[in-house]
Each structure stands twice: as structure tokens, then as C-alpha cells.
Amino acid sequence: MDQVEKVIDEKKQGKPLLTEQKEGNSKKLFIESYGCQMNMNDSEIVAAILAEQGFNTTGDINEADLVLVNTCSIREKAEQTVRNRLQKYNHAKKHNPKMKVGVLGCMAERLKAKFLEEEKIVDLVVGPDAYRDLPNLVEEVEAGRDAVNVILSKEETYADVSPVRLNSNGVSAFVSITRGCDNMCTFCVVPFTRGRERSRDPQSIIEEIRSMHEQNFKEITLLGQNVDSYLWYGGGLKKDFHKASEMAQATAVNFAQLLDMCATEFPKMRFRFSTSNPQDMTLDVIHIMAKHKNICKYIHLPIQSGSNTMLKAMNRLHTREEYLELIENIYKIVPEMNLSQDMIAGFCGETEQDHQDTLDLMEKVKYSFGFMFAYSERPGTLAAKKMEDDIPLAVKKRRLQEIINLQQEHSLYRAKEHVGKVQEVLIEGTSKKSENEWKGRNTQNTVVVFPKEHYKIGDFVNVKIEDCTSTTLKGTAVGYSENN
């Protein structure tokens, strides 16, 4: 089981993004991304903005005029990786003096002075809300000046920028619906690097999905730091909703309504969403999931700890009991729902009893998947400023291993529930282990592999599940599904 955040796909880390070459563009852009799917999506927006400025993407750093790295501050490992990459860029720069190097994304805000003044390793620093300013910033850099814009915006959602889809399998795509986060979890740096929460106009979301539909994409994941708190009332921050006019409040669109609109408008496309926060998830979302066959029956619902003491220290605005009640209601409304978790082992002050509470909660829920890590302090967070990181590394590692071992048991338990059933699978590509097998996912987000026969990528196929491991279902196709 990957000890990785739900939204961090290790296969995509640092892969240079390649887009269709636009005729007449003479400059070369090398761009790679680290971190969450929001970052990958942001890089698509950046490529679209710079394509209008004469840049085509390249996979060869040595021929690049502009090298950009889209960064992540969530974990120390991601930050260290980016630093190592910057050293490599600078090596390439020695051979190509006209090359300019820029840092985008979440590290930009926090480390701007370090990068520009102290270490002098970059020419350009651009925060997540300033990508629209890239043409001006690139001009500044080309004129020999350093360029910085890390201002966080109250409005920016990039609703009118149509992202260039990069490194896509041509089957599934991500559409950002919110930016920023208002939940000040003490371990998390996101509110400081991505700003306050604001939502995109639902019409612009529908239009983006329509364009994906026309390009034959079959599955869309609605994306946000916290999708459940999506709220459109004409623009503005979520926290200012109470100041809006009565009319604006009455006609506002929440997440359940947005989900309903998407699933109704595109009945042949599958919909997923990520990431959810338990304190913001409402049962009307679950009822909408039950209503539509094309909304996948899977929720990533991070809790981080099963202990009330830890939840309070983390500033999670719900208790263990409220979380378990939510889970119980989810299973009542959608019995076939699959759930996954994020867990942090060894947060500040965690006792052995707190750890046992986490294991106990996992036993009660039996998640299908898990994304688990030992706590590491992130500079700039409330925990770093006010709490002592007092759990020895050896204890963190042991607790993490116990969580992983239990999750593997539960993953196998949940996988076995699928055996003997016929399930719809969307084919995404060839199996990693065999050229003769397709892989795809069922509605519950579990990977399914089966013999290729005459089927092709992008087909919806009914597969009889015959066997499983803790992470993969194995079966044989029995025909196209009605969705095909």
C-alpha cells in the first residue's frame, strides 16, 4: 500500500509535460510538476497561457528557453526533490545562458527570498494565483530583471482559461472547481500557499466538461483542496457568503447541486471528486451519488487520526463520533460505497492510546484504500509555530507500520467483496504486469485487470471478477456495458 497522499501520484512526479505543438511558436518551454493533482492541473493552465505567448513544450531541457518547475510544500521530500532539480537546471543553464528558470506553485510564496536573493538559483517566482501574469513576468525576465508575483487572490479561479491536457491517457481528466482552503488544520500549509477558498462559476465548469466530452474523455474528476465546500454565489470568497444579497444567497449553487448538474448534463460520462473534508460533507451529496449511476461510488474521506484529542490538536472541526456517524449514514444511503483515508502517525503529543484509537476507528470503518505517513513538521504551519514535534522517529515508524499492516488487511477484505460480481470497468490502458491485459477501474475506484480480447481504451466493459489481491481485481470481460 502506498504511503502516499491520495492526490500525489508518484508516477507523474517530475514528468515533463508535452502538449500539441502550436504552429508559429518558436520558443521552447520545459515544465515539470511535483505534488498534488491540483498542481498537475495548474501546469496545464500555465502551458495554455504560455502557448499564447509563443511557447511550445519540449521534453528536452537542453533546448528550453524557459524552464519551470511547479512545486509542492506538503511534504519535506517534495521540497528536497525540487531543490535537487533546481541544481540540475542550473547545470543546464551554464551550457545555455539564455535559458531562464522559474519556480511556480506552493513553494514560491514561502521561499521567494531564498530562491531569488540568497541562493540566486531562479529568475522567476510565481505563486498559484499569479499564472495569468506570466506573460508580463516572462518579459521582465527576458529584459534581465528578476520577476516575482506571489500575491494570493480573492477572485482568481482561472475559469476562462481552457487547460491544455498534458500527458493524459485520453480517457480521464481533472477539472478544478475550487481553489484555496479555509480549514486551518494545524499540520497543513495549504491555506498559506493557496489562499482562501473561492469557487468557480458552475457554467464555466460545465463548459470545460463539455469540451472534454467533445474530445471523447469518458471520466471527469472534480478537483479542489476541499470540494465539499464548493459554493458559487456570483463570485467572491466562501467566508463572505453571509454578506451577499438575499437574491445571491437564494440562487447560490452548492457542491451537491453542482454534482447533480454535471451528472444530469453528461449521462454517459463518469464523475469522481477529490478531496473531501468530513466537516464539510453533507448527506445531500450522498443522496445525489445514490441518484446517479454515473457518479462513482467512492469517496476519499481523510480523517488523519481516530483520537478526539489528536483531532482537536489538528484543528479538525469534527469529532471521532461525528465522523463515524457520517460513515454509518453513507453506508445506509449507498451500501456499495468504497471509502479511503489519510492517516498521520505520530502527530505532536500523540499517546499510545491515541494511536490505538486510530486502529480502532480503522477496524470500525474498514477502508478500501489508505494513504498513510509519519508526521513531519512543515514550516509555516500552526503546528510548527506552536507545538512540539515530540514523538521519536522510531515510535512514529512503528505506529505507521501498524496502520499500514491493518490497512492491507482491510484492503484485501474489501477487495474480496467484489469477487463473483459483474462490474462496469472503464479501460484506461494496458496492465503494468502484462501486455495482454487491460487495466481500468470500477465505480469504487479499485483497479481491475482482464484479458484484452477485442476491447479498446475508453470502452466501458462489464467484467466478471474472479480473483483479487489487496490492491487489484482480476476477471474476464463479459461484454460492453450499457454506458458504452
UniProtKB/TrEMBL annotation:
Its EC number is 2.8.4.3. [4Fe-4S] cluster 1 binds at residues 36, 72, 106. Keywords: 4Fe-4S, Cytoplasm, Iron, Iron-sulfur, Metal-binding, S-adenosyl-L-methionine, Transferase, tRNA processing. Residues 27-143 form the MTTase N-terminal domain. InterPro entries: Elp3/MiaA/NifB-like_rSAM, Methylthiotransferase, Methylthiotransferase_CS, Methylthiotransferase_N, Methylthiotransferase_N_sf, MiaB_methiolase, rSAM, rSAM_horseshoe. Residues 167-414 form the Radical SAM core domain. It is an enzyme of class 2 (transferase). Belongs to the methylthiotransferase family. MiaB subfamily. This is tRNA-2-methylthio-N(6)-dimethylallyladenosine synthase. It comes from Tenacibaculum jejuense.
